[in-house]
Design a protein that fits this description.
about 40% helix; 8-stranded parallel beta barrel; 9 helices; about 270 residues; TIM Barrel; two-stranded antiparallel sheet; single chain
């Protein structure tokens, strides 16, 4: 069976519109239905709901309506969560199944919860029967605390086809790891590819460096290489999901406008390039 790679958009392409930035609260908070409509408008095929648009706040009936809204528009859905306790993993596998999703992207840590590698592998292994029954693949995302090599070790330790990695192109900079290191260890296990571009700037009179987001294709990321490494090394289906680290503008109105422009331009860039 041929593997597939579709272009999608994450709620993390709309951090400001989602109201997940504490200093900016738009009058209308973006909903899952709004994000699905954005994907349709941009010609994307997938929507991934991150933990800045938590699906746990919706009833089962509301989740079914989100699934129907997406199905009627030809949009594939994926779910996301953080704080991977066994209880939360179980609940989000159930939620992912309700919305008809195939992938559940997971960040291990949360407030008051930071399992070591062994504990996380044990917790993940405990939900494998539920993953199998629901037809959901767990995509563990590289974040701040573990190295790319350790994320690969997680998948190798769990050793099950329902568990892989969400490869984020920028997150591991917080662990002082370049994309070369990330792709070396994580690309073979890719079940989801988070694309976001970035720049490194001098600030504070030149006595420091600041890493921040850039509109897709205008920053330092070698986008084609990230995709090709994952495509060649992973034998799994994975979607390419657009995210953003955009900084706020002078006004909320301008911030929301530019964020929307980045999202639309980012999807167009990825579709044309990949």
């Amino acid at each position: 069976m041929a593997v597939t790679h579709k272009i999608g958009i994450s709620s993390f392409a709309y951090s400001f519109a989602c109201g997940s930035r504490p200093f900016t609260k738009p009058q209308h908070i973006m909903t899952p239905h709004d994000l699905i409509d954005k994907a349709v408008a941009f010609g994307a095929d997938v929507v991934q709901f991150g933990d800045n648009m938590p699906l746990e706040v919706y009833s089962d009936e509301e989740l079914v309506q989100i699934r129907i809204h997406a199905e009627e528009r030809g949009i594939e859905l994926e779910a996301g969560m953080r704080k991977a306790t066994s209880e939360r993993l179980s609940e989000y596998i159930r939620i992912t199944h309700i919305i008809g999703g195939r992938v559940l992207r997971v960040i291990t840590d949360g407030i008051g919860f930071a399992p070591d590698l062994h504990d996380f592998c044990r917790i993940s292994a405990s939900v494998i029967p539920q993953l199998e029954e629901a037809g959901v693949v767990l995509g563990i995302e590289n974040h701040d605390r573990f190295s790319a090599r350790e994320y690969a070790q997680m998948v190798e330790t769990i050793d099950h086809p329902q568990v892989g990695l969400t490869v984020d192109t920028v997150n591991s900079l917080s662990h002082e790891e370049h994309i070369d290191e990330v792709l070396k260890y994580m690309a073979p296990y890719c079940v989801c590819l988070h694309m976001k571009d970035y720049v490194i700037k001098r600030y504070n009179g030149g006595s420091g460096l600041k890493i921040t987001g850039a509109s897709m294709g205008t920053g330092r990321l070698d986008i084609c290489r990230c995709y090709e490494e994952c495509r060649i090394k992973s034998n799994r289906d994975f979607n390419i999901i657009l995210e953003s680290w955009m900084e706020p503008c002078d006004t909320l109105e301008e911030t929301l406008r530019i964020e929307d422009e980045w999202a639309g331009a980012g999807v167009s860039y990825l579709k044309a390039l990949l």
